[in-house]
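call fold target=Fatty acid desaturase domain-containing protein
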Amino acid sequence: MENIVFSPDLTIADKVVLENLSSEIEIGLLGANRESIKARRDSRDISALQSFNDPKSQDFDPTVLSTYDLRHLRRTLPVIVGKNVVAPYIASARRIVRHETDVVMATHLILYFSTSVPSAIWLFYNFTYLHGVVHFLMQAWYTGSYTLMRHQHIHQNGVLTKDSSLVRLFDMYFPYVTDPLMGHTWNSYYYHHVKHHHVEGNGPDDLSSTLRYQRDDLLHFLHYLGRFFFFVWLDLPLYFFRKGQTVNGARILFWELFNYFSLFILYQLHSKATTFVFLLPLLLMRLGLMVGNWGQHAFVDPDEPDSDFRSSITLIDVASNRHCFNDGYHTSHHLNPRRHWREHPIAFLQQKRKYVEEKALVFHNIDYLMITVKLLQKDYDHLARCLVPIGQEQIELSMKDRADMLRGLTRRFTEEEIREKFPRAGQKQKEL
């Protein structure tokens, strides 16, 4: 299909979804109305994806590594390794993780506690600049996958089994070790993302809302970034206090101040190690979170900015979905924040007609970071090429029309428009 790029590194689920959409584009370009063909294809693809997630199915395909699918490992590893190492590991890990598909969660935890933690400890014991730089680069590589593992953790109240008291305790407390190493302050991700962002949904009371910004303007982005970078430690507690949630406000204020106090003490004890182990990851994470959120919520329909379909997007790309637990299915996540990450492609296909009706946006071959970059470059032609048109209306658009459509969705909202489109802003939190 012209303009549709099938990366060889796409996940199995993403290949199914992208092939499904590509076939509909072909049908649409022919001007054909073949709803029965589309329905049969949807049913077949949904059943295939469900079987991948079903431990009772012969097609069950747990995720073991972010980088490779299990079937790839089975094809490439020596049989003796697969039989005596991989298979026993999967069998053991399936008993430890919360969902049997999520062997990868155990893999990542083993990775972090066998590399990040001992490396950080050694830097405080015997610091060298070479080790410090290598450690920071390692953490920079880990942070995306780790953050989206934690994303699953905060929405599902854990990623490991509840059947073992010891495992449950580890699941509850490991973030207090690993979060600071990855640039997160203690508990801030939970309070900002779950208790705040998903309540407000990019509305006017959302501290990370993009509504008041021109989303292709560099100065607006720098203002957006700077506010979060330097003032979220205060803005978030004040938000909760304004909404009458005094306990949440007090808790997040305590954790933010305690975190910064701990960093101050560590810096006094060992400034170099603290810089490479904690401070640089913190700065990188703050930057990454805002670059990502800008891309996730840059395109907002002026007619219905409070719609999850029209204020967030879906990405079918390697970085977001293979390495970051289907983070590309952002619309699906906002529609149901507690939906398991492996269920997003299925939910997308099941609700595809609704996505079409609501004029939702689907992109491919681009991640949130590059969406932000291309927006700030005002390169709407590139973004138009990455768009996967869904529904006849989008399919019939020329590349220029697609670019113009996307440009119109990044316009800054005036305060008058915000009052008109969000008449009950400020009341939502108290009513929940």
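return ok
The two ends are 46 Å apart (CA to CA). The CA atoms of residues 18 and 316 lie 7 Å apart.
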